[in-house]
Design brief:
The chain is mainly α and 139 residues long. The protein is built from nine helices and no strands. Bound molecules: iron/sulfur cluster (SF4) (2 copies).
């Protein structure tokens, strides 16, 4: 289910977008909102914010709202969006940078402890959740 996004922030091109550009290696301000990334995303129907809107929110410095979206965890890193972008923005890397930003937040107490999970629970988790959890433990 997708939610309506009202865009009115005056923070276009601020420190948050610079940070995500640095972590992802992508030029977010090149995005002109054609929507091709979202149109080809196989997980779009399950996202609360579509991939093109993720880029837009980053451009607008909407850090708090963006890092709280479920969509960045729904993305399965299939790279379809990367191949469709006419501006050669690698959206999947941007989303990975957002996940890294969330996981790098200090004083988190919600880290997934894979060793404590049953095989059934592990089997029910999205693969990206397991990958992200293991990455957190090794970084
Ligand atoms: S990498 Fe993520 S955002 Fe891009 S098309 Fe695949 S699931 Fe969608
Ligand atoms: S395909 Fe590229 S230019 Fe188009 S909305 Fe997505 S990120 Fe922006």
């Amino acid at each position: 289910m997708n939610t309506t996004l009202h865009i009115s922030s005056p923070r276009f091109g601020g420190t948050f977008v610079a940070k995500i550009e640095q972590v992802s290696g992508q030029k977010l301000l090149a995005c002109y909102q054609c929507g091709k990334c979202s149109a080809g995303c196989p997980m779009a129907a399950h996202m609360d914010v579509l991939p093109n809107r993720i880029i837009r929110m980053a451009q607008l410095g909407m850090e708090k709202q963006l890092l709280a979206t479920r969509a960045i965890w729904i993305c399965v890193s299939c790279m379809t969006c990367n191949s469709r972008c006419p501006k050669d923005i690698r959206i999947a890397e941007v989303i990975e940078a957002l996940r890294q930003t969330v996981l790098g937040t200090v004083n988190r107490d919600d880290q997934l402890k894979i060793q404590a999970l049953s095989p059934e629970a592990i089997g029910a988790l999205p693969p990206i959740a397991l990958i992200s959890a293991l990455r957190k433990q090794t970084s």
